[in-house]
Write a structure and sequence with these properties.
Layout lengths: L1 H6 L4 E2 L8 H13 L4 E3 L4 H4 L4 E2 L11 E2 L1 H18 L3 E3 L9
Parallel strand pairs: 1-2, 2-5, 3-4
Helix pairs in contact: 2-4
């Protein structure tokens, strides 16, 4: 991260692949905080979202596609907010789509 920051990055991201382990996310946040880089996070617990094509709150497309329960996003959002508070990291939750995650 240090070399990437020196090269000009302004944040780090899981790029749409939610970090599966709370311990791994904690270490990533601590490391990012050390370089004063915010963490951009895609919140989706894959074990809860397995087989889904979209979140139920997206709209009528979900009438056709199997929806992901809101909890799949909300569990990760709560976890990562708690870890950000614990580590002092700056956190941005990307494309939040459920009331509970907000």
């Amino acid at each position: 991260m240090g070399e990437m920051k020196d090269a000009g990055i302004v944040a780090v991201s899981d790029d749409g692949r939610s970090v599966p382990s709370p311990g791994m996310m904690r270490r990533a946040m601590e490391y990012a905080r050390g370089f004063d880089l915010p963490v951009i996070d895609h919140c989706e617990d894959k074990s809860l979202a397995r087989g889904a094509s979209c979140t139920r709150v997206i709209g009528r497309w979900c009438l056709v596609l199997r929806g992901m329960p809101a909890a799949a996003e909300e569990v990760d959002a709560l976890r990562d907010c708690a870890l950000a508070e614990l580590t002092g990291a700056r956190l941005h939750l990307a494309h939040v789509s459920t009331r509970g995650a907000i």
